[in-house]
């Protein structure tokens, strides 16, 4: 594992007494692709600006290679930034846009050296042969790649990217995600990337930092934050999840809806209340009345999604989302089975009870449904 390159230590940021970053600590390793992920206003850009030196935290330390750099101005930091708006020089061609920073370097680089470095970088971003094109004549994706080449050609240790794909359409976004990941691996430059798009974060990153309300909620690999979310906020923000109240009866045994089920989690107090997350793709539908059926519910809504169906199932008034390739008709009752590894237990948090219920998903169906099919008719198989 590479060594630490950047460290934020207990950084707090406030504007007019309003705290927007609350005592955050973060370690960024050399050569890693780290993503700050969270909803609008959670403090992603502010965190990036602190790393870039555009904003000074009101308290806490910023370290680069172990050296405190709180007072170092942006241009002295070995860091470059790519913004959401490409901010290219539209009156210059592609070559001159990329060469711009190189021409300012001291000692002065030779013409031939500048040409070599620019060509090399245009190759990296797959824009070979675009040298003489006007920046204004390029597509959005091409412009963004010029902006990235312009930042990378200066060989910073760190590239900060603030929602760089935000302005692109979905298809181009996906292509550019792969492209950026490849560029990062090829150049071995540390990327600190900001997005509010959880799929993008999972697809590109070595490390994902999930933020909400100026607080880091979880730091981990994409697999970690998806499979082992720390709290209901993370579980809800990353992917779809059903979140229900549970009681940890003992290590490896949780009770939900009055039923005890095996799980893989432990370390809770005896009978400690917990939040239980069950991903929609981890739920098995089994024949009604079979021994395998752990809960019985009623299908209230079905949506065809191409690869699978999203079905909403009512368990005692609590509505779950299940993703399945088998069609289960609306109004029918189904049994479900939960394997121990499809049940994930989280500590109660201030987010408990706020997320993970799919009632609104099927509100329209409920309005027209027969009152006799209310929740009292749906029971589990105890
Ligand atoms: N210069 C400023 N003056 C006052 N408040 C600010 C300033 N900069 C940021 N804020 C506030 O700090 C909070 C965090 O802002 P920030 O830009 O870091 O959010 P973000 O996570 O990047 O959001 P988005 O996804 O919308 O870009 C917001 O409530 C914002 O209004
Ligand atoms: Mg922002």
Care to describe what's here?
- With 382 residues, this protein is of the alpha+beta class.
- The protein is built from 9 helices and 20 strands.
- The protein has a 6-stranded mixed sheet with strand order 6-7-8-3-9-10, with helices on both faces. A 5-stranded antiparallel sheet has the order 13-12-11-14-20.
- β4 and β5 (67-68) form a beta hairpin.
- It is elongated and about 80 Å long.
- Adenosine-5'-triphosphate binds at residues 15, 20, 38, 40-46, 196.
Q: Rounded to an integer, what's the Rg over CA atoms? A: 25 Å
CATH architecture of the largest domain: 3-Layer(aba) Sandwich
The low-pLDDT segments are 362-382
The class by helix and strand makeup works out as alpha+beta
Question: Helical region count?
Answer: 9
The rough form would be described as elongated
Helix content: 10-25%
Q: What number of domains?
A: 2
- The share of residues in extended strands comes to 25-35%
